[in-house]
Amino acid sequence: MTKEELKKINLPDSPGVYMFRRSNNHILYIGKAASLRDRVRSYFASDLAESRSSAIAGMVSDAVTVTWESVDTVLEALILEANLIKKYEPQFNIEQKDNKSFNYLVITKEAFPRVAVVRGRELFLTWNEKDIKHCFGPYPHGGALQEAVKLVRRIFPFRDNKCVPAPVQKKKGKPPKPCFNRQIGLCPGVCTGEMSEAEYKYVIRNIVELFSGGMRSLKRRLEKEMKDASRAERFEKATALHRQVSALTHIRDVSLIKDEHRVSTGGQFRIEAYDVAHTSGDETVGVMTVVEGGEIYKAAYRMFKVREAKNDDTKALSEILMRRLAHPEWQYPKLIVIDGGKGQLNAASRVLKKAGVSIPLVAVTKDEFHRPEKVIGDERMARAYEKEILLANSEAHRFAIRWHRKRRQKGMVE
Question: CATH number of the domain at 270-413, please?
Answer without folding.
Answer: 3.30.420.340
